[in-house]
Amino acid sequence: MRLFSVLFFCLVAVTVVVSGPITGPALAQSGPAVPGQGQPSPIQNILQENRSLIEKSSRRTIGPAIAALRDSGLPAARNVLEKWQDKALYQRKSDGLFFFAEKAGEDGYRLIDIATGADADAGTANRQDLDQLKPNSGVRALIGAALVPYQLTDPDPAVRSGALDAISRNGEAAHLGALRGAIESETDPDLKARKERLERLLTIAYDPDPAARIAAIESFAGDLGVDVRAALNPLVATTRAVTTGAPPEGENIARRLIPGSDALPEAEAYRLLVAAGLAPPRISAADRRNALAAHIEDGAVAGIPLDDLNSDAARERAYAALAARGLVPPTATTEEVQAALDGHGFYDRYAEPDPAVTAAAGAALDAIAAKLGLNQAVNLSLDALSLASIYFLAAIGLAITFGVMGVINMAHGEFIMMGAYTGYVVQQIVPNYTVSILIALPLAFAVTFAAGVAMERLVIRWLYNRPLETLLATFGISIALQQLARNIFGTQARPLTSPGWLDGALHLNDVVSISYIRIAIFVLALLFLALFLFIMRRTRLGLEVRAVTQNPRMAASMGIDPDRINMLTFGLGSGIAGVAGVAIGLYAKVTSELGQDYIVQSFMTVVVGGVGNIWGTLLGASMIGFLQKGIEWLNPSNTLAAQTYMILFIILFIQIRPRGIVALRGRAAGD
User: In what order do the strands lie in the sheet with 300-301?
Assistant: First the structure.
């Protein structure tokens, strides 16, 4: 019996030694037990396996834990990630288990099982017994990226669209498979097109198959999307490299470089050698001179008389002697520099290792560049056309007064300013922006028409055929009107808000776009062109104006009152300037100096186009608008210089064609 007992205890001891304590690794594999719940769920096991990362999470370290949840395939993984991102995931301090929690009572929390979403058997817990997981913005961003595959198949189209936006901003290799799997089931045509486009973009960046990448690249040939260029440019990006012999096998070489060429100056080539540790650094001539001067002894440096240090070679020998004695840092001589350059090879290499991929990317970018240049020209033309319409609106009134009456009205810009302020005042009374603009346009015409008639009756009529006095008088009126505007409205810029339907721009593609306000101004300019032509050709007033323009004495002998025609003509030109002020004020701040920004261009438009001719004014505005935009495109960093060049060009143009593009007979032409 005693022998049997000894054998039994020996067997138990061996079993314990072999199997180990039950609190060891065997228990760890099954995860901690939840009191009253038996074995933990698989999702709880994943969290427990990454517990140390989660408890001390940071953007740099949390990646494996998030990836484990994302790649688990568990139905509860998405909910856990979302709750974690929303700071609704808690950890119990006593055993480290994770729960969702909802406040229950004064200081209690109801615990919710993370796998089932039902109440946990653990019941409730006090707030001090729980740690709330509060991921920072970097961790939340990583969680958001991990949620994208789930969101791509969400029933809500808005969620799917948001997932595509997230991929567009920060696409990853992990998104490619999820995106491909979500294309076939997509029912929304627009979202499906976006998914297919993003799939091709991610294929370019992350697909391991070169053939698939090349096919995706070729599908974007001629595509002007910014996202396409962002995907292709890294494939043709190069870095400069140096080697002691032939480039390593597998290098995708863009071009070989020769030191001393325009592509690789010798100084830059030697800096590459120094940076790679293949050559000693070389000090500058100034530093070498200072080092020699600091070691002059008895009229010599390192035993070399100062009189002999009259060449770079001699100074290099003296410095080398000092370096040999340990008095100065060593440096390379000219011969050593040249030997180092001759003994190494220099080349640019692509970051992308596959030559076929870089060749396809280069060809696609070339096709895009050609189409991009054409579209940039179209976009520049649209900008020039919109600017020309603004100048035309600003100058059409001046074309009437200057062309018909020969009056140099320096206060024309202030009528534009008065129209803009009229629109501002109307908007203070009528809050509906659409209605206020519809009211402001005719009201601005009426206000500036009345102001123009008053100015003509009180001042201009006494100064006909006296251009210098007219110029000085209207210039004084201009200053007075500006000061009056400052006294009434102050010096602060006032907003003239456009209606909501004029917000934004018409985008033809990622290159060509034009704002709706400029389109509206262009349409307004065409309307005024049609209105002016109707008045001049289909009304009695237009007939009388044309008669006075051609020959005022003959018109007077036919019973036309030139004095009345001058008054109405000046009022009409001023009224149109007021309407132009409302249009200009929609995109420019309304100030007392608003008119001064357009008076010079207005006179140039009238003079270049041809005094007194509406078609000439239109051509002049187009010429100046295109010329200004073209000069600004050639010299974008200096708009003042661009305006100066434009004025010089116009001066030369007037020397060649003094009567403008379309010359008239009659008083306007100086007959």
Answer: 296-297, 300-301, 304-305
Predicted pLDDT at 518: 87
Distance CA 319, CA 295 (A): 10
Query: From its phi and psi, is residue 277 left (phi > 0), alpha (psi between -120 and 50) or beta?
Result: left
Say if residue 423 is in the same domain as residue 303.
no
Report DSSP letters for 632-652, one per residue: HHHSTT-HHHHHHHHHHHHHH
Both 568 and 461 in one domain: the answer is yes
Instruction: Tell me how far CA of residue 616 lies from CA of 407, 466, 529, 661, in angstroms.
Output: 18, 25, 12, 6
Q: Tell me the range of 49-58, 117-126, 272-281, 408-417 where mean pLDDT is highest.
A: 408-417
What integer pLDDT is reported at residue 645 of this predicted model?
80
Q: What's the mean pLDDT when you consider all of the chain?
A: 83
Q: Which among 100, 124, 110 has a CA at the least distance from the CA of 41?
A: 100
Co-location of 398 and 254 in the same domain: no
- The residue among 41 and 26 whose pLDDT is bigger is 41
Q: What is the pTM of this model?
A: 0.65
296 and 430 part of one domain:
no
Which of residues 6 and 50 earns the better pLDDT score?
Answer: 50
**3-class DSSP state for residue 33?**
coil
Q: What is the pLDDT of residue 29?
A: 35
Beta strands in 63-139 (DSSP E): 89-92, 98-104, 108-112, 119-126, 130-132
DSSP tag of 403: I
Number of domains in the chain: 4
Per-residue confidence (pLDDT) for residue 544, from 0 to 100:
86
Reduced to 3 states, what is the DSSP secondary structure of residue 613?
coil
pLDDT at 487: 93
Question: What residues have CB less than 8 Å from 260, skipping those under 6 apart?
Answer: 266, 269, 341
Task: Write out the E strands in 326-370.
Answer: 345-350
Domain interval for residue 161: 152-236
